[in-house]
Fold:
Amino acid sequence: MPERELTFAQAVREALAEEMRRDSRVCILGEDVAEAGTPFKVLSGLVEEFGAKRVVDTPISEAGFTGVAVGAAMTGMRPVVDIMFGDFITLTMDQMVNQAAKVHYMSGGHWKVPMVMRTTLGATRRSAAQHSQSLQAWFSHVPGLKVVLPSTPYDAKGLLKSAIRDENPVVFFEDKMMYKLKGPVPEDDYTIPLGVADVKREGDDITLVATSSMVQVALGAAELLEKEGISTEVVDPRTTWPLDEKTLIDSAKKTSRVIVLDEGYGRYGVTAELAAVIAEGAFYDLDAPVKRMGAMHVPIPFSPPLEDATVPTEQTVLEAARSMCGNQ
Amino acid sequence: MPERELTFAQAVREALAEEMRRDSRVCILGEDVAEAGTPFKVLSGLVEEFGAKRVVDTPISEAGFTGVAVGAAMTGMRPVVDIMFGDFITLTMDQMVNQAAKVHYMSGGHWKVPMVMRTTLGATRRSAAQHSQSLQAWFSHVPGLKVVLPSTPYDAKGLLKSAIRDENPVVFFEDKMMYKLKGPVPEDDYTIPLGVADVKREGDDITLVATSSMVQVALGAAELLEKEGISTEVVDPRTTWPLDEKTLIDSAKKTSRVIVLDEGYGRYGVTAELAAVIAEGAFYDLDAPVKRMGAMHVPIPFSPPLEDATVPTEQTVLEAARSMCGNQ
Amino acid sequence: MNPVTSNPEARESAAGKPATEKDRWLHAYRQMVSIRLFEEQVNDLYTRALMPGLAHLYSGEEAVAVGICEALRVDDYITSTHRGHGHCLAKGASPDRMFAELLGKETGYCRGKGGSMHIADPATGNLGANAIVGGSVGIATGAAFAAKNLGNDRVAVCFFGEGALGQGSLYEVMNLAQLWKLPVIYVCENNQYNEYTHFQETTAGTILGRAHAFGIETDIVDGQDVRAVNKIAGGLIKRARSGVGPAFLQCDTYRYSGHHVGDINREYYRSKQEEQAWKSDRDPIKVLGSWLIEQRHSDAASLEEIWYEVRKEMESAVKFAIEAPYPKVEEVDQHVYA
Amino acid sequence: MNPVTSNPEARESAAGKPATEKDRWLHAYRQMVSIRLFEEQVNDLYTRALMPGLAHLYSGEEAVAVGICEALRVDDYITSTHRGHGHCLAKGASPDRMFAELLGKETGYCRGKGGSMHIADPATGNLGANAIVGGSVGIATGAAFAAKNLGNDRVAVCFFGEGALGQGSLYEVMNLAQLWKLPVIYVCENNQYNEYTHFQETTAGTILGRAHAFGIETDIVDGQDVRAVNKIAGGLIKRARSGVGPAFLQCDTYRYSGHHVGDINREYYRSKQEEQAWKSDRDPIKVLGSWLIEQRHSDAASLEEIWYEVRKEMESAVKFAIEAPYPKVEEVDQHVYA
Ligand SMILES: Cc1ncc(C[n+]2csc(CCOP(=O)(O)OP(=O)(O)O)c2C)c(N)n1
Ligand SMILES: Cc1ncc(C[n+]2csc(CCOP(=O)(O)OP(=O)(O)O)c2C)c(N)n1
Ligand SMILES: [Mg+2]
Ligand SMILES: [Mg+2]
Structure:
């Protein structure tokens, strides 16, 4: 029997539906999540199955309904909030960082906040500076939060189910450009633990450590590199926190050359932490400095030729890898 | 004539007073900034000199008055907003990141936002998890913002004057524990350019790159190391963005051993970027991996013995440096 | 091509000089037609796949932007929204540079860096459209703060959809504006929907009560009647300019199209009949046109002529934009810092 | 030592069983005295440099917390503020574990990790004090959301100072609460000052108008009269519990001390006369005491006896806390994740 394929969006929806069937405390809060199924149509059909009490349309009040989710999570629900564009997490930082992330600790372990925030990342949709950011570095910086960055439909389903079952606040970033990407997704009730990296492709000459949207870019670049005789390993941390340092470092030790890729702004971003961890852990094995590739340090421009220049592509990764391997 | 000494708080106040005298467009907005002169008393006396139209008490509306400052800056004022505790920047992220940082770029260079946000950082005041954070990494991650971390009264005055004269939104972090620290401050109208690191102490065996509160810790550790025969260089980037990479890398090349120190959470924080930059730039000169020291990855606890364990101290830096230099 | 410079009546009225009743309303008519036909072109560019991304059309709501901007001076400020083309045009922007911006071209208002949702224009006091719902309420209030502090007598108008009533920052800044008696007018364009949800499902209590709570002067107007909007706005603007303080104006209106150009099948959230009723009974351009004819300020043929002229203008503006070059890629990291 | 478990009347009243009028108000009296004397000890710990950091005293405001919490069940929820000791005690927390928390000790409610501003206690439905002004409005509303969805009939009370009216999130959640008819009561403790600024300088319009805007049931009460608070709160809580929806209660009150224990010289923002007038004319404990005596529910000596007993209790609670051990340093990274 051929493996079943789902799109990334379908995988997310299936994870939610399965968890909502399994546990009546799971509910969804967000703007246009019900009949509209979100502007990206990721949630289509859920309100029909679970009703408007569990798939709840909210006003445009990101701080407000995120705060409500924190309180609801503390008192017996398992809310999943939907923040349409990752750029709008700016409005929820107090609730996520000063409240959700700290409640368990500040209460000496008494209260828990089992909630999930689903939001998006990624540029190149011609949506300009306020609808194109990839701000996962901020949440990754905050103790008390977990941060998930799925890169395939398979991972999306398994990781989202783990996130919903987790007893802590988890932020789940979905790449908008990936919603239509297809891939095999088992019908089973499988979960993928948070904090375990995945080697998406094995190789010997160079490691590409990539998150979310950049995993597909890395895999594409690996194909091209293969033709040039460069064997490329692609490692996907899958969660920036908890971080599976060992898998990253082991791969770096094996290949001795590493490029880290993340679609957030390059400066003070996810790539900095990953590079620092690898540079420290594989110090004596590296042949060259770890190279970082992220979004250019500019607000994302609207104009297509400019926007395209801000994000790493298969081509720019290929060139960087080639030059690192001395095949320039 | 002996050099004049001021406290850090006095230096900040003097910079503000001088700039307000020089330029009538400079005004201050914040909670209890007028008669109370802020809870830290940093602004005492300013309302008496400049009046309540220029030193403006606001309601407890961080998002609101930050937004007002953005608009006022675009239309001819040069506002300085006061966010009492750095933890409250969570409430201003949309205005700072989606608005202030992007207005110039999104408008194709037409509008400018010459504003300053002054806020605080630092733990060990027994203020617990919501009043002790050092969140400079977030703003450093955002193109369009500049981020200043003064470590001495002298730097505070010179850097704040530059920040106020800058045509861009600048975030200025003051260490609460440093307000009473004294140091020489000239009476002149001097400025310190943003983006120029300062070698606070020269040395040959190891480099401590430290920001804000950690500079004093690094200097203290350097004294102790001196007694053990380890010559320590202390480099203060002074601004995390723009970042003076060259001075950091040059020092690393010289000493070949580096510890980076910042009071923010260690994970995905400022130390990650500084370490990554140095590991890349001085790759062939480093004798050991760059070591990072930041706040422990926990919400800051209230209990004194616990809180004290979360932050690097002279002693822990000493030990790390000692072991790095092989003098264990 | 820029209405502000090309149209003497507009200049005079903007400068506070009384133009004749007839000239004023004919100008308003032309402005509304400009917006309508601008949006027609935008939709066309989208369906022809010539426009990158999406856009949110203002068709149906023209009387709000025009009624209010006709009561403003050219040096007064506005802030606008994701549905901002109407505000920009009404405040005096040129269609050619707007289209260029929508196509990401170098001659666009923002050199292509902003796109549809971020058009800004210092020359007409346009502080910029904003893609964050409620994102500009602080900016508009800040412009009013500056006007008051710098002692010029400018006024700032903050346009926002009724969806922005969900954003807490609106309440924060209304409090500040009233405490400090700032010359800012909050204009709530109640087009009945927040994206795909009727506003009554997201709005407890009343819209005006939200401003009234802060002691702010409030009013409500039929947003399809440009003369009514203009009259009420004129009074509130005069009041604000004189230093009495802010105001909040609810304009009831309707967007003819989907939430954005791609929102085609929308019967799950509103009926075709409802859309049709607004278009046939309450179209702002028809309403003003009938009045102009009734008053003998114009006749059907002359009005037709305006449509014809504006359509030509829009066509050539689109052509200008299509032919314009993209910015050079090297520009990508310019304008990050001033 | 825990008032909830040690005091049968309280348990009964909390369980909804009617206690006698006399017993109810004597219990309320004791609760208010507990808060007053707790805060006396806190100030003392501060001046003796035994307490790390600062604390915000509730003295003067006792009738609000007690009046409201006496109308709640033990399984109802509250959220509290930086000035939270009164809410915690009124909801049933034990002074000993509270003092331990204030000193950062392992036996504290939060194992010393929270301190004065973060006391939380699941056993009494206390979701936690919050050091972010307005930071808990979402949490309280969320607890009400859960209560409604889980079909239990709990109510959530959100205590906040009038300074929190400056925070936009309050308006966001009041809208949600009213739309969804959630069982949450927003209790605005108007003690006249936001830190060092009189609330009239920061509050345009009216306090009640802020909730009225959303169609929320509102009321105002003399926050120095515990019986009045209790009566009005009782009605609103009953209403909320029955599913009718949220309410907003303004309690006018006064803090006797500075903003925090270190705020000693405060004449630049309020006069000694003003402070004295509230203390002598409107002290909530005196007000209730006089009534108890008038009604012959008690006499001066019996009331005196309550003070004596409570003082002893507080002294031993402080002693417990001082003698308690700090948490082990290894605990520092426990409880980051559940
Ligand atoms: C803070 C924020 N949340 C959500 C969105 C997504 N969004 C864009 S427009 C819109 C609806 C806005 O409705 P309204 O304010 O009534 O304006 P209209 O589109 O009707 O003109 C939403 C939810 C956004 N841009 N910003
Ligand atoms: C968001 C936020 N801004 C500022 C502060 C600093 N702060 C602590 S208490 C306080 C005043 C609060 O006044 P009010 O809400 O009336 O409570 P009260 O102290 O009078 O009980 C301020 C400004 C804070 N803790 N949180
Ligand atoms: Mg609308
Ligand atoms: Mg108060």
Remarks:
- The two ends of chain B are 45 Å apart (CA to CA).
- Chain B has two domains: 5-184, 198-324.
- The interface with chain D takes residues 31-32, 35-36, 39, 57-61, 63-64, 87-88, 91, 125-131, 296-299, 301-306, 309-310 of chain B (CB under 8 Å).
- The pocket of magnesium ion (ligand 4) is lined by residues D 161-163, 191, 193-194 (CB under 6 Å).
